[in-house]
Hints:
single chain, six-stranded parallel β-sheet, 13 helices, YdjC-like, Glyco_hydro/deAcase_b/a-brl, transferase activity
Amino acid sequence: MIHADDAGLSESENRATIECLKKGLVSSYSIMVPCRGFQEIALFAKENPTYDHGIHLTLTCEWHGHRFGPVSPSEEVASLVDENGHFYKTRQELKEHAKPDEVRKELNAQLEMALEFGLRPSHIDSHMYSVGANPEFFEIYRELGKQYGLPVFINKKLLKDVGLQPDKVLKQNDFVVEHAHLATFEHFKKGHLKTFYLDAIENLPIGLNVLLVHPAPDNAEMKAITVNHPNFGSKWRQMDYETLTSEELRATLVENNVRLVSWKEISKIQQVQNRV
C-alpha cells in the first residue's frame, strides 16, 4: 500500500494527493479534519468513492506558520490547546498537558464531523502518531476503531518511535501492520527520498507493506506552511510528489510484481477473519 498522509492540510496538499491517486500510484490516503483544506478534499472523497480514504486523527500541529486547533470548542478540550487555542506542536507537550477524556472527546468529534459530511472512511490513522504519546491515548485510538467498526493503523516501529513499548500496549487481537516504510530526515538531507522509496519497493518483505508518503508541491503556500520546518517540509513533499507521479516508480512496481492494496481490502479480510 502506498499511503498519502495529510490530505486536507492545504489546497496544495489536496491537489497533489488527488493527482497521485488519479495516476494510480497512491492506493490510499487519509484526511485531516481540523485543517483548512478539509471541505475541499472531503468533497472530492464523496464524489470519488472508489479512492480509498481514512481519517487522519489530529492532536498536534507542528507548523510555525500554519496553526490550527480542535474541531470541538476549545473550552471543552482546554488541555489539548495552547494559549492561542491551537494544538501543541509536539507529542511531548501533548503528553504533558492532555487529559484522556478530552482526547477522546476531540477524536470522536473529528470522526463525527467526517461522517456528518458524508464520508465513508476505510480506516483510522494518526497525524504524527500522536495517539502514541500516552498509553491511555493509544487505548482510546483502539477503542474508536471498535466503536466505528474501522481498522486502525498500528505498527510496532512507530509505537517505539513515539516512546511506547509494543509488548505492553498491544493486545492479542490487534491487527498490526508489520512492515511500514517511512523515510527519515537523513534521506531527505542527502536528496535520497526517491532512492529510499525505490529501494523499499525492490526489497519488500513478503506480506502487507505500507509506504507512508506526503506529496505536495514546493510552492508559496507550502513554503509558508512549513517555514523553518524542513522535516516533512515543502521541499520534502515536492520530492515525494515527483516520485509518486513518475514512470520510474510505476515501472519499479511492475518489475517487482508489487500489487497495490487499500485499507478497504484489509478491512474486508478482517471482517471475514472475525466471522471465522
